[in-house]
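To the team - zinc ion complex, inputs and output below.
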Amino acid sequence: MLPDWSHYTSVIGSQPIVDPSRQFCHNPDCPVSSKVGEGNIGVHNQKDRRYVCHRCGKTFAATKGTTFHRLHKAADLVVIVLALLCHGCPVQAIVAAFDLDD
Ligand SMILES: [Zn+2]
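Output:
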């Protein structure tokens, strides 16, 4: 079953976290992974918009799993990665160094 991503519209942009009950744990090893409404998700850091799963203890960004999360990563890394590639750095080394293989 695919997760329901529609609730992310409430946390993108500059809006603070207000409803952790609509979030779910992203840890694949967690017993309540991808389940909404288990009561396991709390606010870890409102300023950085991070949630925490009280079942497994993992934290995750409010935008995790969305294109916004990946866009943020791409925006931060694209200049660095291009510079490394231009200087002959192996692609495998860049993937490993920046954890891009996901
Ligand atoms: Zn969890």
